[in-house]
Write a structure and sequence with these properties.
The chain is an alpha+beta fold and 260 residues long. The protein has two domains: 148 residues, Rossmann fold (3-Layer(aba) Sandwich), CATH 3.40.50.10790; 94 residues, Bacterial fluorinating enzyme like (Elongation Factor Tu (Ef-tu), domain 3). Helix content is 19%, strand content 30%. The chain contains five helices and 15 strands. The strands form two sheets. Strands 8, 9, 10, 11, 12, 13, 14 and 15 form an eight-stranded antiparallel beta sheet that branches. A seven-stranded mixed beta sheet has the order 2-1-3-5-4-6-7, with helices on both faces. α1 packs parallel to α3. The longest helix is centred in the middle third of the chain and has 14 residues. The chain is elongated. The relative contact order is 0.14.
Amino acid sequence: MEKLPIITLLTDFGLKDTYVGQMKAVIFSINPQANIIDITHEIEPQDIREAALLIKEYYGFFPQGSIHVAVVDPEVGSSRRPLAIKKEGQIFIGPDNGIFSLILDDACKIYTIENREFMLKKISTTFHGRDIFAPVAANISLGIDFNLLGKRIWDPVLLSNIYPKVESDKLYGEIVRFDRFGNAITNIDSNTFYDFIAHREYRIEIGAISFSSIANSYFEGDLICLFGSSGYLEFGCYKGSFRDRMGASRGDEVRVKITF
């Protein structure tokens, strides 16, 4: 039997309610042999930026043909468009609200989802994850022609607050999320950091503490900064939680200063 494409799910729904289960039920009702993988359902509620960062982090580990459904959708029921995107042999399905900002490039083919044939018959104004995105993903996994979904577009919504900023001899970023261990993960990626410092001496500041070097792993000091497996600058506490130890919060500013 031919192995069908993987369908991944990323949402801010949590697991207390039945929302994730309903999406899976819809997928299985259309394609009983679907291969569903849960990425996470613990995105902070309505945090589109966190979702965008995580999509960039995980999708490259999946094989071509994988279908990624991402639903963090505070404007569900509005005029925002549902999208299906082809990129590097993979497919992304979700709302047009900037959630795919970090994976979009000139090679992407972006379509609005308009054909109701591939949706549920009754569409709720509050749950497009179940009624639009899940059934479209299931139908795509069965091999429908991508072009039947809707019109191709070239103007997707892009987040403006997702990138760090450079001003003179300073690079500004911020904490965008915490992982389960309380590590504080920023929006400063390694390429941006090393391009900025350009072999110069530097100081990394967050709150009242600072660092003048990058660690390689979490056990190298009591409080450390390093580039984690996601490729982003993060702050940790050996055998503890940086968030709890330092009282850190999402949105806290991180500064990289050139000290020469």
